[in-house]
């Protein structure tokens, strides 16, 4: 599914989905966690593809430009996008502090409020990413939050 979506995204933007970009996307999409470029390099090397780091970074840049992967800014890691964005470059990312799971949620109303606040300050936003860390459902059941004093 990720490759088919990537093919359509690359075609729509006039970009080419090369074999290397497919492989890098495959490594990123095979996990529900954000993965770093060097993790991708190591995984590809195990499979017999010895590459220079710059090659992987260029492939990641193309995947980012096509909108099929996102960067988890706080960790300098990447994860596959499984959503269709009406407003590209405006994601709300949830990242589990315990297991590293990442997910996206719709943040239309939140970004509308941010855009209005920015306009009041005579600022025109170009890109926005909101990262929220905490515990996913699975980790919450293993590590319940402490009770708050009343």
Architecture overview:
By secondary structure, the protein is of the alpha+beta class. The chain has a single domain, classed as Winged helix-like DNA-binding domain superfamily/Winged helix DNA-binding domain (Arc Repressor Mutant, subunit A), CATH 1.10.10.10. The protein has helices at 2-12, 19-29, 37-46, 53-66, 108-120, 137-142, and strands at 69-72, 77-80, 90-96, 102-105, 128-134. The strands form two sheets. A three-stranded mixed beta sheet has the order 4-3-5, with no helix packed on it. Strands 1-2 form a two-stranded antiparallel sheet. Helix 3 crosses helix 4. The chain is globular, with a radius of gyration of 18 Å. The mean pLDDT is 88.
